[in-house]
Hints:
Among the domains are: 81-157 and 312-422, MetI-like (MetI-like fold, Orthogonal Bundle), CATH 1.10.3720.10; 175-302, no CATH class. 49% of the residues lie in helices and 9% in strands. The protein is built from 13 helices and nine strands. It has helices at residues 15-59, 73-78, 82-113, 119-127, 134-144, 153-165, 318-343, 347-355, 360-371, 373-388, 392-397, 409-417, 424-452, and strands at 175-176, 182-184, 190-192, 202-207, 233-239, 263-268, 271-277, 283-286, 295-298. Helix 3 packs parallel to helix 7 (318-343).
Amino acid sequence: MSTATAPTGTTMSPEIPAQLAANRRRKRKARVTAVLFALPALTLLGALVGYPILYSAVRSTYDAGGSHFVGLSNYGELFQDKATLTALRNTAVWVIVVPALLTGLGLILAVLTEKIRWATAFKLLIFMPMAVSFLAAGITFRLVYDQDPQRGVLNAATVGIHDAFADSAGYPGARPRDATVLKHTTGGAYTTVHTTGPGEPLTLGLVGLPPTGIPAEAKQAVNPATTQAADAVTGVVYVDFAPGGGGKPNQVDLRERGLPGITLQLTRDGKTVAETTSSADGSFAFKDTKPGTYAVRLPAENFAEPYGGISWLGRALITPAIMGAYLWVWTGFAMVLIGAGLSALPREMLEAARMDGANEWNVFRRITVPLLAPVLSVVFVTLIINVMKVFDLVYIIAPGPVQQDANVLALQMWLVSFGGGNNQGLGSAIGVVLLLLVIPAMAVNIRRFRRSR
């Protein structure tokens, strides 16, 4: 038997081949052991992830009932269906807007929390929504965005701010008892049927007001005869209805209250020459009126519906409103991840920049952000993946009539497959397209994780 030699020509020890073989056996055994330990997880992953993906890809090539092979027809229908195209457009808006906003907001909060005293408590407060389910968050924001200011917190604040700077409409629904004194004119205003002049008091009665629509400061309506003045057009505007019944139409009776705050305009030849407002007892006066004939006009603003806030759940704002709820939930996630990267930055570099005269903005822009670029990219890409799968908030917050306007791909997949469409072929095609859109973002994240190892 020949003697084994090393490549350099020296004699190899007989024990070396045995050691190499033993090492190979140990490595093989380690690989087998690793596979055995991973096999349950791989089996579960294949059953819950791998099989559904393959089944969806196959099912997307069949018709709605799953009995006839249609090839790629479902994919062609996907890009022709109006609802699906709306969902695709909204998903693109989500991907462009939300991850960038969340990453920027998380960066700002992470930097600011380093400057405050109660940083831990602040981070806990911002991160707390992550512990809330999307179902609970959706129900909460559905109430926050409610149109009724008595229920919707956001509209309650909006109406309060509006009413602080502008007068709210006074008497929605009020109207004359008949057309003998006041007539309806263009735009919802009312004008006196007959002209008047100084020294001729007017009695302007209105009906159609509920008891709750009469202000608390309203007093017993004044007798128009007492307002008469030779150099003024005077009168009273009041509720022409006495509680408990009784009284005469177009005449001020006991227990009939005046309407304060009514805007009245004195017009001549179609032009407004004066304007006044009724007092608590409903009386009004256009003083120093020149002799002649005039008409009195009650503008439409007196009878318009009061300001009810912003229609957050309307067609125009429904998608931004849902995005706001999503930001509330995920801001803490972005802040914590970026904050962890921020705490690992070399402090000596930041201090050196400050000692060289750089202000905080330059330190943030030229040092902090570039050093945090790997963390920011991971957060950004992760949020893109999550945004593409958004479903719960859209389904819960968007009311039925505007749900299609806020539709996204994940919701459209469910609606087509199980929400009444009963077309699982088209639903599977949407699912495959959604998977294909997510894969590039996942690949970028995996590649970056490998680089950081």
